[in-house]
Design brief:
single chain; alpha+beta; Helix Hairpins; Heat Shock Protein 90; 3 domains; 12 helices
Length: 471
């Protein structure tokens, strides 16, 4: 799986693109140099050599050297000779072609040998075959190897330099990823004084402003909640003096809703940074059973399943009841008339305990899923009291789960409905150390046989639509 992920990452990496451009430039430069030598240097060099050797061959031919003289010249100059005349013919090397064959073959490549045919004074003909010496060919090979080694060294050195230069960009990428995961305390260290360093400072300033804005918003909600308590108390006292029974009941209901909302806002702020959480190693199965029983009389009801009779986690039991209650409230409230019972499943997966709440409702639009856990967010833009609460239930649930060091996510089911997945750390030295973890090919958010409806009860796939609104 890591290889599948690494492929797209490399393709979209700035570092990989720079290295690719660098290699392409090196190959292009090498091709240009090779073409220059082949198309210009070599022809010019060959022409000059041809003129010099041909002139020398003519001078030697005028002296009409014999076989012994030709052998001495061949040993000194790497020039083999053949003579064909009316009275005799000889060759200093057995592999020399005849003069007729040399005329048909022309001149060989520069790295092998070149033939020069010169008439002799006595009416014969001399064939000169110039052979490059072995040390010349070795020099060419050494030059080629040295050039390749130098190019490889340049590539590796440039690779290391680019990694160092682009390190701030990698750090920025990690910081953006952490910020996207909700870590507002991220700070990227400045590693250079260039444009990337300026970009790093701008990113850190942006994160700081976002952190201040979010905390100011939460503080405003908390301050407003506290300020509303005094007038709310006075209204409750005044309500007791009201004689109209019907109006008194309606106003009492409105005041009760306001008290609930204020209490949830205060609770949301109290849970920030893990405050108000007292954890202990507890079995989560009884907690799920207890909360589920309170929903048995509400259609479509709730059923609980687990992979073991005891699954322990380091939790605050009362806070975890709030999380499960909020999730079940969502699932039951937005189930359809033909929905199956809401499934609650718990399982231990390696070092994590996973609680999954799956409903058979309309599901959640993909573009809205990321905003479900924001305070006061509701899919129902009209914010009708008939379709939901204040939009604080899921925010509180996420704050509680994160205070436990866990995560809460949401995903749409394959057929219909949605699933909320709560992942909690499993305490070291758990009393249920003999519980076998789930197979390694399953992720912590995927439990085999947990929260899935039976095939005969599955409905045909339906399009997602607005309707599931958080508590």
């Amino acid at each position: 799986m890591n290889e599948r992920v690494a492929g797209p990452h490399v393709r979209h990496s700035v570092f990989a693109k720079v290295v690719t451009v660098m290699l392409a430039m090196a190959a292009t430069l090498l091709a240009l140099v090779a073409g220059f030598f082949l198309l210009y240097i070599n022809p010019a060099l060959n022409a000059s050599i041809d003129r010099v050797v041909l002139e020398y061959a003519r001078v030697v031919a005028v002296t009409a050297p014999g076989y012994d003289t030709a052998k001495r010249l061949a040993s000194r100059l790497d020039v083999e000779m053949r003579y064909e005349g009316p009275d005799a013919s000889w060759a200093t090397a057995d592999n020399l072609p005849t003069i007729a064959e040399a005329r048909r073959a022309g001149r060989g490549p520069l790295t092998l040998r070149r033939f020069y045919i010169v008439p002799a004074p006595d009416g014969g003909t001399y064939l000169f075959a110039w052979v490059f010496s072995e040390h010349v060919r070795t020099a060419h090979l050494v030059v080629l190897v040295v050039l390749l080694l130098l190019m490889a060294a340049v590539v590796f050195v440039t690779h290391a330099v680019l990694r160092h230069v682009l390190q701030p960009l990698r750090a920025l990428g990690d910081g953006v990823a952490r910020l996207g995961d909700g870590h507002l305390d991220v700070a990227v260290p400045r590693r250079s004084g260039d444009e990337l360093g300026v970009l790093t400072d701008a990113f850190n300033q942006m994160v700081g402003r976002i952190r201040v804005m979010i905390r100011s918003r939460d503080q405003l909600l908390l301050d407003v909640s506290h300020e509303l308590r005094s007038p709310l108390t006075r209204l409750k006292v005044a309500l007791e003096l009201l004689s109209d029974t019907d109006m008194k009941a309606r106003m009492a209901a409105d005041l009760a809703e306001m008290e609930i909302m204020i209490g949830e806002l205060v609770e949301l702020e109290r849970l920030r940074d893990g405050h108000g959480i007292r954890t202990a190693c507890q079995n989560v199965i009884p907690i799920l059973d207890e909360v589920a029983r309170s929903f048995q009389d509400r259609p479509p009801s709730v059923r609980v399943a687990s992979t073991a009779p005891e699954i322990f986690a380091e939790i605050d039991a009362e806070r975890m009841r709030t999380v499960v209650r909020n999730l079940l409230e969502n699932a039951v409230k937005y189930s359809l008339p033909d929905s199956r019972a809401v499934d609650v499943c718990a399982a231990q997966n390696g070092e994590h305990v996973v609680i999954r709440v799956s409903d058979d409702g309309p599901g959640i639009p993909e573009h809205e899923a990321a905003s479900l856990f924001e305070p006061f967010f509701r899919l129902d833009r009209s914010r009708s009291r008939k379709t939901g609460g204040y939009g604080l239930g899921l925010s509180i649930s996420r704050r509680i789960v994160e205070a436990h060091g866990g995560t809460i996510t949401i995903e749409n089911n394959p057929r219909r409905g949605a699933s909320f997945i709560v992942t909690l750390p499993n305490p070291a030295g758990s009393p249920r150390g003999d519980v076998r973890p789930a197979p390694s090919d399953e992720s912590p958010n995927t439990l085999s046989g947990c929260g899935q409806f039976s095939p005969e009860a599955e409905h045909e796939a339906r399009g997602l639509h607005d309707g599931l609104v958080d508590h």
